[in-house]
Amino acid sequence: MTAPLRKHIGVVLATALTFGFMSAVPAYATESPSEPAVTVVEETTSTAQSAETDVPDPEAPDVVATEADVQEPEVTEPEVTESDVTESEVTEPEEPTTPEPTPAVTSSVPKISGSAFVGTKLTAKPGTWTEGATLRYQWLADGAVIASATKSTFTIAAAQSGKAISVEVTGSKAGYSDTVETSAATLRVMSFATPKVTGTAVYGSKLTAKPGTWTSGTRFAYQWYANGKSIKGATKSTLKLASAQKGKKITVRVTGSKVGHPTKAVTSKSTTKVAVAGRAKATGSALVGSKLTAKPGTWTSGTKFSYQWYANGKAISKAQKSTFKVTNSQRDKAITVKITGKKSGYTTVAKTSSPIKKVPRSATPAISGTKTLGSTLTAKTGTWSKGTKFTYRWYANGTLVKSGASSKLKLTSSHLGKSIKVKVTGKKGGYTTATTTSKATANITYPSRTTPSGGSWNCPAWAPIKGNASSMIYHVPGGAFYSRTNPEECFSTPRAAEKAGYRASLR
Question: What are the residues facing 475 on neighbouring strands?
Answer without folding.
Answer: 466
